[in-house]
Amino acid sequence: MILCELATPAAGSGHRFDEERHWAASLALRFANREGTTRLVQARHQGPLRVQRPFYPEGSTEACHVYVLHPPGGLVSGDALTIRAQIERDAHALLTTPAANKLYKADSQGVAWAQHTELNVDDGGILEWLPQETIAFDGSKGTQRTHIALHGSARCLGWEIMALGRPASELPYVSGRIEQHFRLTLDGKPLWLERQPLDPLHPRFSGRWGQGGATVQATLWAVGLEDASAAIDELRDVLPDNPRWAVTVRQGVLLLRYLGNSRNEAWALCEQAWQRLRPRWIEREAHTPRIWLT
Known about the structure:
The structure is a single chain. By secondary structure, the chain is mainly beta. It has one domain. The protein is built from three helices and 20 strands. Strands 5, 6, 7, 9, 10, 12, 13, 15, 18, 19 and 20 form an eleven-stranded mixed β-sheet that branches. The protein has a seven-stranded mixed β-sheet with strand order 4-3-8-11-14-16-17, with no helix packed on it. Strands 1-2 form a two-stranded antiparallel ribbon.
């Protein structure tokens, strides 16, 4: 889907945009339970952020699947994207994306991009935040902020997958800086706070005590498991046995981490973990969004 005709390509990115007018886009979604069915009752947008119509592949009384669309396909210098979602009481939304998000090389002035995601889940609400991976091109500069605010008995399961550079094209991530901020709260109290700078010039990037030269990282989290210890035991039994991932629980949050060099491996690990966790988490089998299969 093309929403706007863009003028000129950013240097080295393949991404078309008007150098005098960068994208400032926002999307605000609200889901509510209406007579036992989760409905998308509000979808406000500005700029190139949209959603497709809601899907109910699990049945009308189960999760409302929604695909978040960003037609430009990625962020360039000066872009600012904001995504907000409100999941009201007893509503259940699964949000994903149709393709990888790309973070392109900064312009000649080194102007950064910004991406802000704010997810709010009311008491009794359920949110699955399952975007496809993010690919950072060499020289990309920007800040990602994710804030998930849970209330009461709200439950949330999600992941973030980041691939640095394009090794298959022999274009590693050797310059630039990406700063990530993650905040997960319950009734205003922090459960998990994290800040991570990704700077290939910093010793942490290649040091064994830090990233160790890994080009792909992923984090999966789950809040609302009745028996997190049993869930961890199951994941350790069924997921591939290798040193590139680990799982634990902190403050009631199950955290699975991957640090390696394969986007496919990271994605498969997260998807398999989600498939195993979902029946324990909400007593429903995982239903793969069909957009992942196209």
